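Blinded run. Sample ID left blank on purpose so nobody reads anything into the name before looking at the predicted structure. Input follows.
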Amino acid sequence: MTTRRSYFANILAVLVAAACGLNRPAPAQAQAREAQSNEAQSGADDVVSRESVWRDPDIPALGNPDGDVTLVEYFDYQCPVCKRVHPELARAVRDDGKVRLVSKGWPIFGGVSVHAARIALAAKYQGKFAQAHEALFTAKVPLTEAVIAEVLSKAGVDPARSASDLAANRTAIDAVLARNQAQAEAFGFPGTPAFIVGTFRVNGGLDAAGFKQVIAAARAAQEQR
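Blinded prediction complete.
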């Protein structure tokens, strides 16, 4: 395991262990594992390098793309704790103004979660990843493929084009999800939500004030190096 953690091996610290609400991967996680790429299998060191974790070129950065602190979240659109934490995280990122937010789908709640993660990434091909991400997280009803298409449409995302882009880019999209999973497992996360804030590791959810504290600590740590 040590060799897989690369850059982060000596500097990650567990700041928070939020025992309530941590979700264990379900057996249906095997559906996401079907797509694991050769990169995730044989290039584990690269998969969990600082650049791969912070700056995956296939995942659009949210928040401030030029921010001085990078916050990476590993989430599932059907995770109830993720949904509860989402507005708190959004508030902290918005209030700070200097945080790069990298949202990495880790679909561990079954087939619908896998589909949601894939279709959100497909929306980036029409420049609508942020809209799809927000729509899926704020949906008021349980997700199904039909509901996903409906909420995307209401958010200004063309669901037909997303489906077409998913079909055309399925290999690349599945490789992204495989990298996300490889990273989450390498860091020892027990489930969603989980975060890398600068070089700190956070298990479980925080409120806006908690995120602000961790962001400030990550910024201070960077300034000391």
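Unblinding after everyone has recorded impressions. The longest strand covers residues 69-75.
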